[in-house]
Design goal:
Oligomer: single chain
Number of strands: 2
Largest sheet: 2 strands, antiparallel
Distance between the termini: 45 Å
Shape: globular
Helix content: over 70%
Structural class: mainly alpha
Radius of gyration: 21 Å
Strand content: under 5%
Order of helices and strands: HEEHHHHHH
Number of helices: 7
Mean pLDDT: 84
Length: about 210
Amino acid sequence: MIREPADPTTIKTGASASAKRKEFLRTMTLVPVFTVLMIISARIAVAGAPIPITLQLPMVILTGLLLGPWKGAAAQGLYLLMGLIGLPVFSSGGGISYIFQPTFGFLLGFPVCAFCAGMFSGLLDSAKSSTLINYAGIALSSVASILVCYIFGGGYLFLFSHLFGAGVMEKLSLSEVLVISVLPFIWKDLLMMLPVALIAGRMRKLRALAR
C-alpha cells in the first residue's frame, strides 16, 4: 500500500496553530504573574511626600525587560485597570478617583514604561554580544524607561496643578515640578536599576521564552 505524502500546507498550518496556542498559554500565565508581583511591590513602601517611595517602578521595568514590550505593557495595563475599577492594588488603595490625584501620571506611565523597557532592550540585546555589553544594554534601557515614566508623572503633575489644582495646590512651573516630583525620587530608581539589570541579565532564558 502506497501512502500519499503529507500535504506541506497542512503540516505548516498545524505547526502554526500549535505555536499560537503555546504563545497564548505563555501570555495567560506570565502576564497575571507579573501583575501580582506588581501588586506586591506597591505594598513595599516608605511614606514620602508628595510621592510615596515604593518598588513599583523597578518592578515595571523588570516586567518589560523579562516579558518584552507587549506582554510587559499588558501586565502593567492589567494592574492599572484593576486599580481603576476599585481593587485596592495601588499603594494607597484604588478607584477611579485616583485620576484626580496629582501623582496619577506615574501610574498612567507604567504600561508605556514597561513597553519602552522591553523595546529598548530588544533592540540592544544580542546573543552574540558579550555579557558586559548585554548588561550595559539592559542598564541603558532601564534608565531610558525611567525617564519616560518621570516625563509622564511630572507632566501630569504640571497639568493637574494648572487644570484641577484650584483650592488644592498652586500652579506649578516646570522647574517646581522638577524639584517636587523628580529630583527627590529619581536617584532611588536609578540605584535600583543595578539589581534590576543583574536580575534581568541572569534570567536570559525567561526573556527568550517570553518573547
